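Protein modeling request. Please complete all fields; requests missing the sequence field cannot be processed.
Requester role: graduate student
Desired output: 3D structure, token encoding
Chains: 1
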Amino acid sequence: MTEVLKGAHSPTVRAWVEGWAISRSAPAPVTDRWGLRVDVGLPGHVARHIVAAPTPAAVRGLTSAITVPGTWLKLCAPVQAVAPLLPPRWSVQDPEFMMTARLGGDAPPPPPGYHLAVTTRAGVTAARLLTGAGEVAARGQFAIAGTTAVVDQVETAGGHRRRGLGTTVMRTIAATAAARGARTGVLVATAQGQALYETLGWTLHTPMTAAVLTSS
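Delivered output (216 residues):
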């Protein structure tokens, strides 16, 4: 179990968990036997366990100990490595990818027809691109953990895609976070998001597998 406990203190993974908790207004993470745990307390998302070094022994021990439906696992490993270790009552989600980047640069001007709003509340900074009517066309947010900006909830509304709005939001976040002392960014992307972030200089830190307990 030593490998797992060392992995639980991976600076990048720990920063991501701490920043995610701030971004989602969740309790601060705690260290448990297998890694880090956030007691989210929402329906369908009771808690999440994040394991930076998911050995077979750790995965089996963790899944044996958890009995509450709506508990999530975030395992820093590819799906093919850990999915066979999960009992049938665990629903494996689409692959995810933890990515990192050095932060800096200047915030770009918004594309024609949009204006940019950057606001901060309770430690979370949101960048939004708005239409002239005030509709949110694209957005993203970040929270800073140490010198790491944890980027979260980046999305573009359906009627505004393929116009470079996601790129504008991400570059605005990178510039704003760097101006506030963050040196590195970290996020967890879908496969589709990974392709965009790679064009902006983000690189893969680790594949991730998410799974949720569907029944006790």
